[in-house]
């Protein structure tokens, strides 16, 4: 079973209830993300995102810090609405869900390998968790026009 198949099996209840919807490919989201946020190589250049948060976990193999960062950032920034989850290696599909649903399954999702991207509606914000242990968050630069997911 692939990582994607395992993840979808783990999230089956949320998918069947309609809380999570699936798109076969995440490519369009990566393409648009690269248009909205400044890149440094293949990653977002957080140094160029005003007021971004960049933290490195003390133990990159323990998702506990990632989960804490997720909850703290969601609460501190009052993030709500729908978001899209994409992964740059182990998971090809894109998952769309409300922030409230992700709160219930974030730990399961972050257990899978790869760089994890959470993208707010209209690309208004992005949060990432990397295999190197980086945890980042930033709002869309003001110079970028609004777009729809």
What does this structure look like?
With 149 residues, the chain is of the alpha+beta class. It has helices at 3-10, 12-16, 27-36, 64-76, 99-110; strands spanning 21-23, 39-40, 43-44, 53-56, 82-87, 94-98, 116-120, 125-129, 134-139. The strands form 2 sheets. A 7-stranded antiparallel sheet has the order 1-6-5-7-8-9-4, with helices on both faces. A two-stranded antiparallel ribbon has the order 2-3. β8 (125-129) and β9 (134-139) form a beta hairpin. α4 (64-76) runs antiparallel to α5 (99-110). The protein is globular.
SSE diagram, text form:
Layout: H1 3-10, H2 12-16, E1 21-23, H3 27-36, E2 39-40, E3 43-44, E4 53-56, H4 64-76, E5 82-87, E6 94-98, H5 99-110, E7 116-120, E8 125-129, E9 134-139
Antiparallel strand pairs: 1-6, 2-3, 4-9, 5-6, 5-7, 7-8, 8-9
Helix pairs in contact: 4-5
The quaternary state of the protein chains shown equals single chain
Shape assignment: globular
- Major sheet description: 7 strands, antiparallel
Give the helix proportion (percent range): 25-40%
- Summarize the helix and strand pattern as letters: HHEHEEEHEEHEEE
Number of helices in the DSSP assignment: 5
What are the segments in which pLDDT stays under 50 over at least 5 consecutive residues?
Answer: none
Taking strands numbered 1, 2, ... along the chain, how are they ordered across the largest sheet? 1-6-5-7-8-9-4
Q: What structural class do helix, strand and pairing data support?
A: alpha+beta
> Kindly state the mean pLDDT as a whole number?
93
Radius of gyration, in Å, reads 14 Å
The tally of strands reads: 9
Number of domains: 1
Which band does the percent of strand residues land in?
25-35%
Straight-line N-to-C gap:
30 Å
